[in-house]
Design a protein that fits this description.
Layout lengths: L2 E7 L16 E2 L2 E2 H10 L5 E6 L4 H10 L6 E6 L4 H10 L7 E6 L7 H14 L1 E7 L6 E2 L5 E3 L7 E10 H13 L1 H6 L7 H8 L5 E4 L12 H9 L2
Parallel strand pairs: 1-4, 1-6, 4-5, 7-11
Antiparallel strand pairs: 2-3, 6-10, 7-10, 8-9
Helix pairs in contact: 3-5, 5-7
């Protein structure tokens, strides 16, 4: 069995209001991307493919991969215009002999060994799983004019995180199909926002929900930095 982690760090971080891309902003004295890379480096994952912004490959190789001795990083590739482009490029850079792909947002620094192991057990059994947590708050579905249209049962709503984990061959083939049919999907107004949606759109395969952690937050805005520091400091 061989596993690969596709770690996405190609975003611009425009909502951070900073000249420094969020994946390179420091928390606890280390770049944000360091923490998820370390988690996969110290786990059962065999290979790591790091997807970065255009022009950042040399910087990331020297200042992050080599500096912190992330020996499992087998490839660093440039991402695409949208997240799903970056995922496909990352998958295509991985060893085709891989059995399972863990797709993870590099802006989630608090993925850990337990989450990775739970995901591995689930993907081996079900072929597809996503990490998340049950929603604590009541959720409202809004209509086009900003009014509450419906209220889903909170007992059946989850906040989805990453990693999202799949049979490697399946998810690679589906992303390559998505690439071929991208124009058609855009014309139909279909917006792919996570990896599970690709599986849901093209197949009838059920995706297992796996418990992550409420601390497995995504760093998106400046308000998230103090929260990340607090989690890091225990």
């Amino acid at each position: 069995m061989k596993t690969v982690a596709i770690v996405l760090a190609a975003g611009s971080g425009s909502r951070m209001n900073s000249d420094v891309k969020k994946q390179y902003m420091e928390i606890g004295g280390k770049p944000l991307i360091y923490y998820s890379l370390r988690a996969f480096e110290e786990s059962i994952i065999d290979d790591i493919v790091l997807v970065v912004s255009r022009g950042d490959i040399d910087y990331v190789r020297k200042e992050i991969v080599e500096k912190y001795k992330f020996d499992k990083v087998t490839a660093i590739v440039e991402g695409g215009l949208y997240r799903y482009h970056s995922v496909r490029l990352g998958l295509e850079a991985a060893d085709p002999a891989c059995d399972y792909a863990f797709i993870h947002d590099g802006a989630r620094p608090f993925v850990n060994r337990d989450i990775i192991m739970r995901s591995l057990h689930a993907v081996k059994e079900f072929g597809a799983c996503v990490v998340g947590m049950p929603v604590k708050d009541t959720i409202k579905i809004a209509d086009d004019k900003g009014f509450a249209a419906s209220t889903p049962d909170r007992a059946h709503t989850w906040l989805i995180q990453t990693p999202q984990v799949f049979s490697f061959k399946m998810i690679l083939e589906l992303y390559q199909r998505l690439d071929r049919e991208e124009g058609e999907l855009m014309a139909r107004g279909i917006n792919i926002t996570d990896d599970a949606m690709v599986v849901e759109y093209y197949t009838d395969k059920k995706i297992k929900l796996v418990e992550g952690s409420y601390t497995n937050i995504k760093i998106t805005t400046p308000d998230d930095i103090p929260a990340a520091e607090a989690i890091l400091n225990g």
